[in-house]
Amino acid sequence: MPLDYGASAPPIPPEFADLAEQEDAMVGETLTAVVPPPEKPYNKRVMTALTMAIAEVASLMGLDLGAGEYTGPTDAMDPEMVRFLAMIGAAAEEYGKPLPVKLEEIRGDSELTAITAAIKKLASDADFKEFLSEEVPESEPDTELPDEGGMTEEVEEFDFASRMR
Fold first, then answer.
1. Cα-based angle 56, 59, 61 (whole degrees, multiple of 5)
2. What is the reported pLDDT for 89?
3. What is the pTM of this model?
4. What is the CB neighbour count within 10 angstroms for residue 3?
5. pLDDT of 7-54, one tens digit each?
6. Which H, E and C letters describe the chain, residue by residue?
7. Taking a C-beta distance cutoff of 8 angstroms, is the pair 103, 82 a contact?
8. CA angle 77, 95, 2 (to 5 degrees)
9. Which residues, 6 or more positions from 122, have their beta carbon under 8 angstroms from its beta carbon?
C-alpha cells in the first residue's frame, strides 16, 4: 500500500524523508509481529476490500493511499497495512467506536471482514470525519506544584553518626 501525500505535502529535505520512511517501516514491522499468522492464507477479495476501506479513512485524514488490488491469496499482511489498521483502530477507540477485533485477535478472513465493515462504517460517519479533522491541542507538561497544605512529605530524621560507630 504505497503512501502518497499528494501535492499538499510540505516539502521536506530528502534525508528527513528517508528517516521518516525508515521509522514507518520499523513501526509497521513491529506491529506485524503482533498479528498472528493466519490459519489459512487471506483471500484476495477480503484483502482488497480492507485496502480500499483503509484508503477511504486515510482520505478523511488528508492522505492519498494508492488503493491496490491483491492478485492472489496472501500469507501475511503488509506492514504498512498493519500500521494503518493500528492507527485507525486507535482513532476509532478514541472516537468511542472501537474496531470489533484487535490486531492480536486476527485469525483469518472473518476477522478481517468484520474490521473492514467497521472501517467502512466509520468512513461514512460525518461525525468521525469531523473528529479526525479536529486539531489536537499541544499539551504542556504539568508544572504546577501541590498546595502548601496539600501533600507534604514527612522527613524522617536519620542519625548518621550512629551509623558510623
1. 120
2. 94
3. 0.67
4. 14
5. 445 567 776 666 666 665 565 566 666 788 888 999 999 999 999 999
6. CCEECCCCCCCCCHHHHHHHHHHHHHHHHHHHCCCCCCCCCECHHHHHHHHHHHHHHHHHCCCEECCCCCCCCECCCCHHHHHHHHHHHHHHHHHCCCCCCCHHHCCCHHHHHHHHHHHHHHHCCHHHHHHHHCCCCCCCCCCCCCCCCCCCCCCCCCCHHHHHC
7. yes
8. 30
9. 57, 88, 92, 95, 97, 128
Q: How confident is the model at residue 4 (pLDDT cuts 50, 70, 90)?
A: very low
Q: Which three cell numbers stand for residue 72?
A: 492472489
> Tens digits of per-residue pLDDT, 97-132?
999 999 999 999 999 999 999 999 999 999 999 998
Distance CA 58, CA 132 (A): 10
State residue 100's pLDDT score: 96
At residue 134, does pLDDT exceed 50?
yes
The C-alpha atoms of residue 31 and residue 42 are separated, in whole angstroms, by 18
What does the alpha-carbon distance between residue 18 and residue 67 come to, in Å, rounded to a whole number?
23
* Lookup: cell for 162: 550512629
